[in-house]
Design brief:
Blueprint (H helix, E strand, L loop, with lengths): L5 H9 L5 H13 L1 H12 L3 H16 L4 H9 L4 H13 L3 H13 L4 H13 L9
This protein binds zinc ion.
Length: 136
């Protein structure tokens, strides 16, 4: 589902940056895979800044800046460049942002042609302090 390596998963695990489901998944793997345990021990002793912080920062940044509905429409239509598209994929599949997941499933239902109207609606919803995406 994602292209993260074990080192990056463990980095997120150590930072407690994963959702409970994935924390449990890592813990299960740690019980079953001695090699993964050794890697975890190594990361505990000497955290790898490139692996941990780039993903950790991306995670934090991802939480703060959700893509717009227009971007999601383009993502679904395959119109984004590779870099942005992989960021959106990361946001959706690794972070599993509930707001964006609701947005995307809604867009998939409607089709992408109403993207501009949706973007306006989205902005007013946010401005109004909308916090429960499933209510739409
Ligand atoms: Zn989001």
């Amino acid at each position: 589902m994602t292209e993260l390596g074990d080192e990056q998963w463990l980095g997120l695990y150590l930072e407690e940056a994963l959702d409970p489901q994935r924390m449990a998944w890592i813990e299960k793997r740690l019980r079953e895979e001695p090699a993964l345990n050794r890697l975890l021990e190594r990361l505990r002793r000497e955290p790898s800044p490139s692996a941990v912080h780039s993903i950790g920062m991306a995670w934090v940044a991802g939480r703060l800046t959700c893509p717009t509905r227009t971007q999601w429409s383009k993502y679904l239509a395959g119109l984004l460049d590779t870099e942005l598209s992989s960021y959106l994929k990361f946001h959706l599949e690794l972070i599993e942002c509930p707001f964006c997941r609701a947005n995307v499933s809604d867009l998939q239902k409607r089709g992408a042609s109403t993207a501009d109207a949706a973007e306006l609606a989205d902005r007013s919803a946010r401005a109004a302090g909308w916090s429960r995406p499933n209510e739409r």
